[in-house]
User: What shape does this take?
Amino acid sequence: MEEKKVEIEELKPLRMSSTPPPPPSVLKPFVDGGLAGLLSCGVNGAIDYSRSISNDARYRNHPNYVLKRKMIPGLVLIDAFAFSQLLGYYNIVRGIAVARNDGARPSLYQEASSGLIAGVATAYLRIPFEVICLHRQVKSMGPIAQWSIRKLSVLQILRAGGPLLKRNAGLGMGMVAAYNPSVHYLIETHGFSEQAAKCGAEAISAFSAAACAQLAHHASSFNSVRQTLNSKGPLAFFEGFSGLFSRTLPTVVLFWASLDVVRGNFQPPTEV
Assistant: This one.
């Protein structure tokens, strides 16, 4: 009897180790993205506020700077919410692609499709909060805001938010779709370490985000794209790209770095 008990006790750990690991939580990417977005956008918001108050006294009370200072806290929360939705939806769609590939890595087309779906969904969720924040802050400024926007309703501003919607969708798509493939490429092709590959992927992700946002700005219709191409050439689609990239780079790099801190260092590069 004692020998049988010993055998049973020795088999228990083997049975427990053979059980499959629990499936990853669907809500975890939303939480991680929100925390990382709050950290990165909080840093950017503090920098923007310090720049605004450090301006010359002649411009410090200008409606542009006053409105910007008033909107910074609300925009930080909106950005954190947007990052949460972007990372969460991307992981859901990417997980479906992995399941269809029988666990294999998604192709570039699947990565781009996942980023596009997540970027568009996030842009549509984000823009109402952004417009409502803008409308409320302008109305609260009183006579200092002598703009026609005070006469517009929220619905009228939403109808005119098409360019902002396309820009946000392009930013989100390029940012998340480029990160994973860049990490794998730098590690497998160039022999980068994981941390070095993540740093390089952050810069590539920012460049991709700015490029997609720049191209999405011109993607209104086929006729307008053709007219721009015939009149100004292909370089016209990248006018102002350097400024957009310089504004996008700190936000994207801080987000991925904050996400790495939130999740802990040295995570598998296949998961974002």
